[in-house]
Model the fold of this input.
Amino acid sequence: MVLDVSKQPQLPTTNIIQPQLLAASTDWFEYRVKAYPHQTDYAGMVWHGTYLTWLEEARIEWLRSIGVDFADLVAVGCSMPVVELSIRYHLPISMGVEAVIKTRMVEMKGVRLNLENEVRSPDATILYTTAQVTLVTVDLEKGKVMRQLPPVMKDALEKVRG
Done:
């Protein structure tokens, strides 16, 4: 069997941060996933670490949806490491099950972004996981927290914040 990677999320580097706002909303951003065998434990349930990968994928796609390409941030020397993470597993996800990772920004304070996530069934009736993630922007060359967000990122996030 050949895996069709064209349907997988991609992070192409364009070397230009997109300044236009593609989606300005305080609503949830939704990112669909499916539990594959390699993401599960011996019992066929999604391994707890897989959720962290899904949260990161959703975060990167959320940024892209508001006009901030993460690969472009890295290309200009900026990273956004997770500095705080709280996750609660409500119900397990079985192999083959589809889910929606919901992401929204709840606070922007200086260079610190606080995001909220929910992992739900596609029809939103089942809550599998909730998470809170805090990110900061870091200058990759200096290895230090930046004093301010890159302008394009700040502008996009302020439009989302409203």
Q: What stands out?
A: Helices lie at 48-65, 70-75, 151-161. The longest strand covers residues 98-109.
